[in-house]
């Protein structure tokens, strides 16, 4: 039913084995072959969604969505992914408020209770490491990390990479501009790690001086073989980027009002004017959303702005692919 | 499969075209032909529900229920409508609390995110005009207004009219009594507008002096050709009404305690005694609910009290019909 | 399709009649024949879940889950039960906050609204008697009590008994140890009532002196013919128990800090050491959860600890069986 063109049957079996029953905690657990098959599947998931095909791929299966932290976007994307595939969800938002947790149930016990009820757990949590902890606790089913604090959000990286892959037909030989909070942005770091799996990528990182990549991160990324060029002024933006990836600078990161004001002066926002000046006609503008003080809504009408077009939709397709593979239904 | 008796195939195609893909923002966008087909469909939806027939009409489709304001009744009715038709929902209650909105995502972006995830958006919001704004933002799918502040709640009017239509077999030549807050009641105003589409209807409007219809509203309604007679005392209630439509007087409307007390003296509540005195044996008693200080629970046992019988059920049937038509599945 | 071995067809019809359309308010309404067939059905439900068989038993049916009180565990269990059977849910958590209730809708009206929308109501409420009240209000559909304050939680008792039945193949001739708050524990009292339906059961009740069974409860239970032996010290635990049933002592039960401290000295927690000392190799350790200051997590690895293994899963199977029977789909 799923025709994955670029692999032999035996290769496919092996790669599927990399997903089936596995916890998805960190983006780093994926090989390029894993990503390859996942994107092949995601492309077919897109067809299901676009045609509103009733799918039975997850029929009879229950997926728990345990969201300890507000996120309507990621929550809605996973819920849509399960339901588009004919599966059902158990939806628990803020278990600390609406739950046995208020009677003192531990996080570990909540995980084991929902392990008993369902076939997979999608977990969002404020605390870094929560997903790995849950994966260790749940013995019999896969746990998928839907963001654990500022640690990891592997499906965000998958959808970002898929957006590039779908647009450019490859994940190597790309030049990108990453803007915003290079020091802290989880999504930016993950995207750098993701692109470092592929050859000959160059990333310009545009950020205020006080929000540059840490030296440790810089060394880590360079050791992975990706070319990173740090810039601080819009004049330094190169004109040949394949993509721009904008992230927001979170005010709460700053200890003093002064530090925030200093940084703010240097923040570059993606405006129609900035696109006119520095973007190519085929450059795409991405943003993991919400795009608060990152991308000017005046840019939305520009077809190159894909964040509320293909990028947000790709989140559903890649999560469908991941769920189907992890639940062993492909 | 759906046999709509009173129209030719060509007429049906045209009328269906009036629904498919359309935003449902205001009751005023419906013609009597639209209402006709919608009620024909609703009657068949009733059969599906009563027989618990598994329906596949919305199979493969996702409907987002974005409720920015608490309303278990309208929420439950739309959720039931989608699920009775074999569709699935994305349910987001209070997105301001449980969502990316807390990180500063705008209303418009939330709408576009759920546009990317689903096939229709049902929106409830405190702010008048929110539904029209959302309909403008969402380019590719229908937005259905499930109540935007004191502005519009078109599906409430549909279910009210359907209740009359089902009971009397027509929407013209009816005499009704509307009671409560004539100045502010959204549902009462909409029902008057709805009945003004049909010939020879007469409405008695019973309200405290301080809560009479505004002169503008009165002029507007009369220009539409409906006969309105304002009354303030229960003795003036005519004995030949086909229906009574009771609404509650909201205390928070009054600026002072005194004004509230003055109005309260004049509020007429529907009691068994009032029905005995003024209602006919075929008069039906409606209420959009909640019936707080509007209808005495002692009336519930009276078969003429339809608010918790057919009226609340008709909300599900009419919403099923609307969803099926708007999503192009009929 | 369901093969129930131990009854003739005519007996089955009668017993099914005991469920179909019935409100499930109290455990006491079940006869041993009812429990028999329910457990026969539950065993087959287990097969459906374990095999992830897509079931159509509740296809086309809607079950309202009205949870006025936080309980992710019971909520998730009922939601899973409905969805595993191919049914759909209307999920309303905390209707007082997210609902028409904030506009003053009464509890009775909320029940009647959801009666109009669905085929069954599962109700969780803080107030003892809420389920019976709801059952009286809802004329046309079954209401299932999912816990009403410290009054009743019949499906908890069903799953506890089923766990014993599945493990020992019988519900008579059992010796058990019940530990914790014997004075107040709803689940402990219900389990005693449940086991008193069967012959020759002996229960050791271990609790601090201040939390012993009340004299009234003691007399009531003994009149039902069950043997109860009260103990206060771990040294008095007999070595031949078939099962241990641990419950937590809720601090909020105590009027003074002193009373709490006194009781605390006497609380016996289930630890690996306690199992080594007093449990047999086939003794099972149960807990209705959450197991806060009742069972030490160090016991979890012991296969005899079934609370997060079979016991929690049995909640889904027994609720599936109950829903299917009550909704007349078997």
What would you note in describing this structure?
- Three copies of one chain form a homotrimer.
- With 330 residues, chain A is α/β, with parallel strands linked by helices.
- Chain A folds into two domains: 9-152 and 315-326, Rossmann fold, CATH 3.40.50.1370; 155-299, Aspartate/ornithine carbamoyltransferase (Rossmann fold), CATH 3.40.50.
- In chain A, 40% of the residues lie in helices and 14% in strands.
- Chain A contains eleven helices and nine strands.
- Chains in contact: A-B, A-C, B-C.
- Chain A binds chain B through residues 52-55, 67, 70-73, 75-77, 79-80, 83-84, 91, 93-94, 289-292, 297, 308-309, 312-313, 316, and chain B through 56, 59-62, 64, 88, 90-92, 95, 97-106, 108-110, 112-114, 116-119.
List the helices and strands and how they pair.
The structure is a homotrimer of 330-residue chains.
Chain A lengths: L8 H11 L12 H19 L11 E6 L4 H13 L3 E6 L13 H11 L2 E6 L4 H8 L5 E6 L5 H15 L6 E5 L6 H10 L6 E5 L8 H9 L3 E5 L11 E4 L10 H10 L5 H7 L5 E3 L20 H20 L4
Parallel strand pairs in A: 1-2, 1-3, 3-4, 5-6, 5-8, 6-7, 8-9
Helix pairs in contact in A: 2-6, 2-11, 3-11, 6-7, 6-11
């Amino acid at each position: 039913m799923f025709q994955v063109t670029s692999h032999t049957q035996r290769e496919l079996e092996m790669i599927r084995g990399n997903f089936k029953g596995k916890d998805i905690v960190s983006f780093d657990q994926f090989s390029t072959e894993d990503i390859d098959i996942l994107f092949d599947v995601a492309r077919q998931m897109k067809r299901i969604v676009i045609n509103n095909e009733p799918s039975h791929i997850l029929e009879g299966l229950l997926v728990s969505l345990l969201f300890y932290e507000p996120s309507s976007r990621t929550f809605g994307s996973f819920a849509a992914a399960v339901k588009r595939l004919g599966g059902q969800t158990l939806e628990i938002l803020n278990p600390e408020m609406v739950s046995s947790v208020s009677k003192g149930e531990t996080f570990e016990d909540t995980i084991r209770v929902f392990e008993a009820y369902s076939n997979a757990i999608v977990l969002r949590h404020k605390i870094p490491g929560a997903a790995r902890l849950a994966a260790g606790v749940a013995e019999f089913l896969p746990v998928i990390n839907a963001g654990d604090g500022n640690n990891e959000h592997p499906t965000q990286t998958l959808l970002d990479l898929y957006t590039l892959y779908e647009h450019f037909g490859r994940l190597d030989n790309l030049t990108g501009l990453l803007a915003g909070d290079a020091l802290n942005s989880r999504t930016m770091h993950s995207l750098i790690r993701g692109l470092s799996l592929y050859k000959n990528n160059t990333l310009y990182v545009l950020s205020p001086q006080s929000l540059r990549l840490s030296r440790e991160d810089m060394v880590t990324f360079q050791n992975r073989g990706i070319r990173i060029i740090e810039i601080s002024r819009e004049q330094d933006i190169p004109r040949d980027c394949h993509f721009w990836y904008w992230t927001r600078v979170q005010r709460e990161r700053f200890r003093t009002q002064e530090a925030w004001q200093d940084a703010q002066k240097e923040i570059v926002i993606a405006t129609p004017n900035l696109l006119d000046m520095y973007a190519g006609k085929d450059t795409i503008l991405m943003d993991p959303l919400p795009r608060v003080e990152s991308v000017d809504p005046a840019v939305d009408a520009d077809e190159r702005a894909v964040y509320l077009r293909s990028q947000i939709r790709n989140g559903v397709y890649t999560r469908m692919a991941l769920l189907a593979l992890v639940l062993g239904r492909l």
